[in-house]
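Q: A reviewer asked whether we had any structural model of the full assembly, not just the individual parts. We don't, so I'm hoping you can provide one. Inputs are below.
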Amino acid sequence: MSLTFLSPSRCAEEAVTSPLRRALEGADPEAVRDLSLEGVVEIRGTLGVVVPAAGEELLRLSPRRGFLFTADDPAGVVERVRASGALAYDATGAYAGIAIASEQVLRRLTDLDLEQIPTAGPFAHVTALFRRGADGWFRVYVHQELGHYVAEAVLDALAGLETNA
Amino acid sequence: MSFLLACPFCGPRPVDEYAYFGEVTTRPTGTPTLRELTDYVYFRDNVAGVQREWWQHRTGCGEWFLAERDTRTNEVLEVILPDPRKPAA
Amino acid sequence: MRLDPRPGERIDRGNAVSFTFAGWKITGFEGDTIASAAFAAGKRVFSRSFKYHRPRGLLCCSGHCPNCQMTVDGVPNVRVCTEPIREGAVVEGQNVRWSLDFDFMSVTDKIGGPFTPVGFYYRTFIRPRALWPLYEKFLRGAAGLGTLDPHAGHSRRYDSEHRRARVLVVGGGEAGRTAALAAAKAGHGVVLVDEDARNADLALAGVEVLAPGRALGIWEGGLVPVDAGTTLYRFRAEKIVVATGATEQPVVFPGNDLVGVMLPDGVRRLVRDYSIRPGERAIVVGADDETLSIATELEDIGTEVVKVVDLREARPRELVAQGGKGRVRRLVLDGESFGCDLVVASGGRQPAYSLLAQAGARVEYDDALGVFVPTELPDGVEAVGSVTGEGLSKIAPEPAYPGKGKCFVCICEDVTTKDMRRAIGEGFDSIELAKRYTTATMGPCQGKLCQLPSVRVYAQETRMYESAIGTTTARPPWAPVELGLLAGRELTPARRGSIHWRHEEAGATIQWAGPWKRPYAYGEKPEDEVRAVHESLGVIDVSTLGKLLVEGPDTVSLLERLYPNRFGDMKPGRIRYGVLTSDGGRIMDDGTIARLADDLYYVTTTSTGADAVTAWFEWWNAVWGYEAEIVNVTGALAAVNLAGPKAREALGRLVEDPDDVAADAFKYLDAKHLEVAGVPTLALRIGFVGELGYELHFPSPAGEHLWDALVAEGARPFGLEPQRVLRLEKGHIIVGQDTDSESNLYSSGMSWLPKLDKDDFVGKFALEHFAQRDEKEKLVGFTMEENVVPAEGAQIVIEGMPAGRVTSARPSEAAGSIIGLAWVPTDRSQPGTRVEIVIDRMRRGAKITHGAFYDPSGERMRS
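A: Here is a predicted structure for the entire assembly that you could use as a starting point for your response.
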């Protein structure tokens, strides 16, 4: 049995909505953006065999655990990675992703050393994956069921910068 | 408790990122007596000194590993990866 | 009172600011603190003392002592000597009945002397015990600081921020600045924090200055929280340089707490920063040149210095401050009286070592200096400047000077030399015990002004050396901190499935279920939702179920060793119920296991068990060194249970080929891939709620879409409460509710499950023992004889003796009675046995049953 039941990209297009749709409705796009529907592939086993394609980023958590962020169809990436000998799972639906412009918001919600990014660590008391784009924005991914809570925490931290800069 | 523990993959992180699973125990083999079973299930050495224990970097990479920690000072002398294909307990 | 403009003053005389001080309108200048403006306007009494309600005035003017704590705009215990002036602020006294200048409670001071020694309340008012709550109410009201309105909520917003520093310097004095500059030359990441707001614009090349900021403590791993008012900075520093300096210590003599008795630094601040003449006639008492030099400074501003008492020259036989209405009027020295309105007194400086001690440094008495100094600093921590004792002059004033009147060792807690003597006399023969008994050093100053004096008095009374007495343990917080700041923002992680908002929109009652927010029911009548499932079609969001994929060559070995039952003999596409046990044989979690391919299994866990089960699988996987990957896909997948006699029909309309879900093509305990309403779905035919049912697992982002499609097909949403009724009707247990840490598979009626002939599995040893012994208790069903519902946990009584407990109970229309599950003694567990259950103190009859209450043969769910 295949694992396509993990892949939002294999759903009818109108069927798919972001877990952050309500939380980020009306939020300032210059401060936060929703990345939840961008492709995430969880990789297990021999990470060494995985070759990220152009535009992809491989976050290595350990020699046997990693995440591949992709702009391609993640279900296709799963097949490609599996063909190369590692295990792969479409994790696009598993993660809510939020891009945050302000470094100070990050510091309000995590004690992680931001120099260590990309990595995994705590964010608003839950486990998160961290990336940093060439644009300087921080990209934080949490389990989608915590996405709404985390997005609210981010917006609250942003609001706090007005009071306690 | 705010000491730093070095994850073998993520480096030093505050201890509250980790789940602690207690000292390494030896699981009985064969058919243990009730006393042997009880010792294994309920009793721990609880040393005041260096012990080998299980940790998981739960708010991080998620990997399990072993650490040699001095329970008196929280000094971590060594972190060790469990050897695949070789039972650790 | 205000002097003519002076160079270096911090006030802007062109900018007047007005506020209310204890009902008086006061106008000061921009740059003033509340205290300096009030003092300049002639106010002298700022607070009433903790126990005796004695008037207290400015003492240190540096935010250390308790004397100027007031309630500012509703925030209690604000030290107004460092609180900047602001327009319209309302500043009120606290711990007073009536007013700061006239406090009814000061009667405690007048008559209370002989009646209020340490420990008095607790010994005197403890009998009769029944009256203690009454006494306590009065006593608590009589002593204390400001009051908090428990219903007011946060008066302001507090944030916390995590920061990193290569070098964190605490203290912005000369030594701190020098150390910070030196560190900045070696690289970036140098931060200096200082409690004094006046250092905010300190410019040091390459150094970030944070002021006002008070370091609250030093924890392991270089963690230093810094209180910056409404932001708490949590610093992790590679190296911490403590430059907290040395704090002026009060001289202990009778009347030393009178309004007008001040520390030299406090006087200097009033003069230099706010251009205030602190008194007309002053007396200076000191034992070092630094203290005595204030005499010249006072004369320069026109204060008459009546007398300079150099404690090094002669030991006064009598040194007493006396006054009227709590204010100092004269100083009596060896029988001679000197009129004054200001006494500037210091017993020298004590290194402010607390942070170092918290970090693990030793603190020893330095006989040469007559103070305690830090030694043996831990790695990563350095001390510079006078906190090390460096540059301090040898000062050894008498521990306490004789004379008539109250002689305060600890002004925060109103502890006198007499209290210390009494504590020692009663046998509190260590400084730690005497501290706890008298509460000396336990007040808002955290020992800054009383640690050394109390040790000195203790030494004098016990005729011991200070070095042998030592100090009390330094604990955080080093400076008082607002609880709101420590609490910070409320961040309680809530898990919501991707269909959550549909439930909110449908008006469901949402409640916490472990870490999840879930619908309890959609309407007022959960039984209607139950009926819909039995008679037609219901749908429940079960996205909260833990979901794991286990894949790899050792998957079968891993699962066979984790579970008591077998999974290796299952065909791909089949499902089996599984219960996890610990090596102690206890039930940990349950769920279904579907084999998707030879080396690929799909495991579900209880809603609250996902994280623990994942960790448990991974741990054993690491222990045994298996090659199997455990992937937690709980959030990746939404899941719904479509249940009821019409389930097949409805599902058939949503899939491309209805034959895919025909009874013979999709049997009970089958798992198969379906495309439902355009969504790729793993469909599991299982029956937790006892009717024909399909659990559909599919990508989370399609949650709302598929839910809408099912509701459109006529499925009535049902919540947790109806599900609890439905599962109870089937006698299905909920792990953790019907079982506890003592339950095992044999006592819970699942003796069919463990396969003891397997080589090994977690819990095998224990289950082998359980299999051979008689269980004391069994989990059974019961039906009530009357229409009353026992509470979960209700007692079961047999022959008048407590014999068991109810774990679940609900009214069931389908069963036609109140049904439930309960633990009863094995010899009373036979079907038909009558027991009694205590409900509202009444015993009600119930009959033991075995098996399901509804459709016992399981025909409906298998149909």
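A: Points you may want to mention in the reply: The longest strand of chain B covers residues 50-56. The mean pLDDT of chain B is 90.
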